[in-house]
Design goal:
Length: 245
């Protein structure tokens, strides 16, 4: 992204049943080593596993949120890898409540490199389309477009990655989500095909759950099997930490 956030990268936890890496909002939390061994999942949405993932694209609308704590932090994003691998190639929008009010920023990350932030304006209600594509030889193109405000950012990056998962998810590396009523993902495609074709796994996080996947679309809504601020399902401790949006 064009600009680095003034906040410091922190660690992301891991989805249920797999070693997850990546993604990063910023905040002066020094939880990288702590979260690297935390068994709580902080991804919510759908993750497809397999091999040969070369592209993912999806759209979402940023919801109105209420900051219940200065630790609240979350982002919707799309990406490749990170579920059962040690890299993530991802782009999305974060909502950071450290100032007491929600601050929205677009970003991309090629974990284990630090996340990079775009300087373009972002507002509640904006419609976004994010995409990550690769030639399978380590070359990646990441694109984030604000369909409402009319800006688009694109970057070309290189990373020796495995391309073994593809995901459209929300995440809170701090395990502390702000309150929102619904976030809708639409037109999610993988390798040019509808997301449903890859039988992605559903994951709840932080008291939010996902509706049934239907033709590449689903909603994230309050629910799931944990309290809103913390996912208490135990999993095998992951082998690698990750940055936050």
């Amino acid at each position: 992204m064009a600009l680095l956030s003034a906040l410091g990268a922190a660690a992301l936890a891991f989805p249920v049943g797999a070693s997850a890496a990546g993604y990063g909002p910023q905040r002066p939390l020094t939880d990288h080593q702590i979260r690297a061994h935390d068994s709580d999942g902080v991804w919510g949405g759908y993750v497809a596993q397999g091999s040969g993932f070369t592209s993912i694209s999806g759209s979402w609308t940023m919801p109105q949120v209420t900051c219940d704590s200065s630790n609240d932090l979350f982002a919707p994003w799309v990406g490749i890898d990170g579920y059962g691998s040690q890299t993530v190639e991802q782009t999305g929008v974060q909502v950071d409540c450290s100032s007491g009010s929600p601050v929205l920023s677009g970003w991309y990350e090629m974990y284990p490199a630090a996340p990079q932030y775009f300087s373009d304006p972002v507002s509640v209600g904006d419609s976004f389309t994010g995409s990550v594509t690769t030639d399978g030889q380590g070359n990646y193109t990441l694109t984030l477009t604000d369909n409402t405000q009319g800006w688009s950012e694109q970057t070309q990056q290189y990373l020796d990655a495995q391309n073994i998962s593809a995901e459209a998810v929300i995440e809170s590396p701090s395990s502390s989500y702000p309150s929102f009523s619904e976030l809708d993902f639409t037109n999610v495609t993988v390798n040019g095909q509808v997301f449903d074709d890859f039988s992605p796994q559903a994951i709840d996080s932080g008291g939010y759950t996902e509706t049934a996947l239907d033709n590449g679309g689903f909603s994230i809504v309050p629910g799931g099997d944990s309290t809103r601020h913390h996912n208490d399902r135990a999993t095998t401790a992951p082998t690698h930490g990750a940055t936050r949006y």
